[in-house]
Here is the input.
Amino acid sequence: MPFALTLVRLEEALRKPGCAVCRLEHEAALNAVDHLLWEHTNDPQTRREVRSAGGFCPAHTRLLVAMELSRSGPALGVNLIYESLVENTLEDLRKRRTARRMSPGMGLFRRTRHAPAVECPVCQQMKQAGMNVLSSFMQALEERDSRLREAYLQSDGICLKHLRGWMDEAGDRFPRATDFVLEDTLERLKKHRAEMLEFIRKQNWEYREEPLTPEERRAWLKVLTLFTGLPAERFDHHLPEF
Here is the structure.
């Protein structure tokens, strides 16, 4: 994705709730599944990648189904992809059965040897998209892009998973930008922790007459966003179903 276009999309994402990198990763997953269903279902290379991974992770399997059912109705693409996976799995399980009969007691070794070593293809594309977005973001901050800097400061911040991932993999590339985001995150966490401590204190019967400030009421939500990347409204009373 061209650098300028990435920055435009990043600025738009920063003005929405939650971690902007997580949001753009989700968009990358949607695009990956869309291309898979409508352009690459029968592509031999794509099929090899899906088979090597043993299919998709649960979240992206649901995304695959939801996208096809919402757009075309019949799950033809899902059938094509998973029929091939079933064929591959039958072969693998038959080999396991034969090995089990020939060498009892070696189950753990065989499970380790045959386990898929490749990550879900959509997860791979998401991670690469996230790293590309982070790289563009840090480069723009390093070059003192004041517009993007202001959008970041007004945003919910970059989640801890992406900040840590960036620092571990590429933090030396744009040192000023990395230090800026790190220091800002530290300040956010310290501020929210102080607000959470006040929230906790004011739940004590002795201090029940002290009103909570709006910041104290929402500090825990801001912290959860930093830990997960999810917008605050995703944390509600609805229990997730299996």
Notes: The longest helix spans residues 175-202.
